[in-house]
């Protein structure tokens, strides 16, 4: 099988930053919803990458520890504008929620957000966003009997066995099924994307990732300063959490509450605030850094916490993507990818139910708002940010009615 290398039209770093910034202000609903926003923006509207490359990238990031949706955004920025583009994509997508959570830490403390109607509306729009993503990806990657069956089984297993490593095991098994039972004949090959990162740079990035994971705990014993301990704790969490999102919470709690850096009440209040802002849940680290009782500048501590928890994602994405792009062209791996991509659709389908649906849809009014927002996305093709605003208003109205 021969494939030609596609030189993706390179964009400017500012273009990547501006596009990611708009997503950072409007991407409510958690990591699964973020993948829907990314697909609509980067694949459908901007056409920076094709559908197959996007789904392959999502599958890759499911394997990596850390926040999968943020890693997908970093990867797209890398392909579009190099290493600086990956940084710009991360800053743009992450900055709005970081700023909001630092302000929250300063200004409103433990203000109760759980019963706010507009926040409920933002949770409901996530249902429509994820449903749109599942439908679109199913049409592309689980449209025949075999792959559709893989997707359904993956969804069932994800729902029944909701453990940390379940998703990784599902993807591995789906890859083997694809390798032995799915043929690439008649399928269009994956585009061989030119990755603007040399393999030597990738190797250095992976060495730094592993090196920091080993060296930082040793340094904290030799020179036990607060900032070094802080960086070590958040870097370790970002390096070792599979599944991202809510999975990070118990590890973060043990890292910051047990040493006495943050009280349990502060931790819970910050988690509530994190649900109210767009962007990745890992920006919870900004709030935690800002409320720590130290003699240092709270903003500085918050930024160090954010950088430490996201740094492993940068190093892994930069280190893995150049090799991933080569491997995904192999015919055997393409067959495996067919199974993996179908499994990813099933995992998203499971996530559409739990936690997206189960944590949002409580009554008939909620379901009506989901139908409305889904129609605005699918039938009227409105931009996601407009649908987000409509859903926030609708959530407030539901709050008054119930």
From TrEMBL:
Protein name per its UniProtKB record: Chromate efflux transporter
Gene Ontology CC: one annotated term: plasma membrane
Main localisation: membrane
Superkingdom, natural source: Bacteria
Organism per entry: Chengkuizengella marina
InterPro entries: Chr_Tranpt_l_chain, Chromate_transpt
GO MF annotations in UniProt: chromate transmembrane transporter activity
PANTHER family: CHROMATE ION TRANSPORTER (EUROFUNG) (PTHR33567:SF3)
Family from the record: Belongs to the chromate ion transporter (CHR) (TC 2.A.51) family.
Pfam family, one: Chromate_transp
Topology term for the membrane: Multi-pass membrane protein
Compartment(s) of residence: Cell membrane
Alphabetical UniProt keywords: Cell membrane, Membrane, Transmembrane, Transmembrane helix
Spans traversing the lipid bilayer: 87-108, 120-138, 150-182, 202-222, 234-252, 298-324, 336-352, 364-380
